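**Protein of interest**
===
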Amino acid sequence: MSIKYCTNCGTQLPDEPLNYCSLCGFKLSQETNANKQETIANKSNTGEATLITLCILTILGSIFGILKGLYFETAFDYSAPYTRGFSDTYPIFNLSRSLVYVSIVCNVATLIAAIYMLMRKKAGYVIYMAAQSINEVAFISWLSYSMWGSVQKIFIPTALTSVLPAVVFMILYTILVKKLLR
């Protein structure tokens, strides 16, 4: 037996058939009410599947981001003997290294946030939005500051592969959080 709700105000209805909602007075149609209940259940299942898919993709992306950050940090360490004096001439070099640290921290926070969202915790959404916002602002700031040589050539592809997916995920999570997280 399924629990029935008023399609107008959402009030839970008793098991016996009613013609009107006891709270708002809305005229209830037994057939329409049953169909709408089924539609609501299907939409909820779709939302759940979408949230789980987004969280899994976020976890994978966060792990990739952490590994990418650690790789770049290692590359900075190995290149240190060859770049002495370079960071004095090009301050962007130090800014790039700082961006790697910001990226690693933000990816760890995003990983934790995705796990919280899988547990249906609204705190996961807040952590995710904060971490992604910080990461993307830092990244865009670095790209706009570093208008030298080859960096200009990678601005659009990097923006499309990094910033655009982050913004899309932020929008999708915002839509889903209203429905599924507490």
